[in-house]
Each structure stands twice: as C-alpha cells, then as structure tokens.
Specification:
Elements lengths: L7 E6 L6 H10 L4 E3 H9 L6 H7 L12 H8 L3 H25 L5 E5 L14 E6 L2 H9 L6 H10 L3 H7 L2 E4 L4 H16 L4
Parallel strand pairs: 1-3, 1-4, 2-3, 4-5
Function: Catalyzes the phosphorylation of the 3'-hydroxyl group of dephosphocoenzyme A to form coenzyme A.
Family: Belongs to the CoaE family.
Subcellular location: Cytoplasm
Amino acid sequence: MRAPGRPFVLGLTGSIGMGKSTTASLFRELGVPVHDSDAAVHALYTPGGGAVAAISRAFPGTLAADGSVDRTLLRDRVLGRPEKLAALEGIVHPLVQAQASRFLAEHADAPLVVLDIPLLYETGGEARCDAVLVVTAPPEIQSARVLSRPGMTQEAFTAILAKQMPDAEKRERADHLLDTSRGLEAARQEVAALVENLSDRRG
C-alpha cells in the first residue's frame, strides 16, 4: 500500500520476448504514466546523450559517425564478457535510475505509475516498487518472438538469457503475473483489472 502523497509504484518486468513492451503500451492506453528504462537508455546513447562521453572513453571505437553510440558495436564488445558488461552497467544504470526518480517526482499526484525495467530483479529495482508485475510466456513462444527480430542470432539470444534471471524465478517472486501467450485482448482485460485494483490502493 502506497504512502500518502505518492503514487502506487508498479514494477513491470519480464525476460526478452515475453511481451513486456506491449504490456507497457496497454498501461499507457489507460492513462497510466510509464517510465521506459529501455527508452531512457536509447536517449542516453543519442548524440549528446548523457552516457555518450563515458561510453566512448570506456569502449573506444563504439561511436557512430553522428556521435551516437553504435549499439551493435557496443553489444559485440560486451557479449560474453562479464567484466565489460559490468563496466557498461556502471555507467548506464545510475543515469537511468536518476531519470526514473525525476519521473516519479513529476507524477507524484498520479494514483498509479509503472516502472518498465527489463532487469528489475537483476538490479535490485524491486526495492523502489510497491509491487511487481512479471510478463511471461512459454519458452517456445519466447524463442520464436526473439529470433524473428532483425539481426538477432541464437548466440546473442543465449547471451541475453544468461544475464537475465530465469523466467521461473521471476514468476516465483512476482506479485502479479501476465501470460502474454493468451493474446492481446486477454492481456488488455487483465491490465485494465489490475489498474483498477492498484489505483484504489491509497495510503
């Protein structure tokens, strides 16, 4: 139950290919403010973005001609290298968390807000949430979705899964679950019910 004077903060997470982005859009359809951590990272990587200079120093040669971070080059630098990934996360995560804090302050009067964080459990982000919604789907559906993405390879998919908490553990830790394999309309109805429920949790 949220404290007086601030929104109920729902963390939204799920492994790659589980339908998290679509679920976030369903919350937006209902007028719920959503902070998208992936979008925040993209902004940090654009020309003049807050992470560009630090990434350029830590990973020379990863900038594109326009001054943005080349995400493909950067991914190749950290893929399968835990120490490099940790260095990158040390640059990016504090900046994203600072943006999320500003987002919460901007929407202090909302009854409910969503923090969309892919690595929520992996980074301890649940500590900033009142409850967590995990989106899930059967492994075969997850794999088909991910491998259909442009430029995605089985190697990259396996590496991404290796740094994410297993879906089973996320489901066990979740306060709420949404199985996206049941289709968009079913997901829309479940999100609407959840919004109605959580928006009434006043401190």
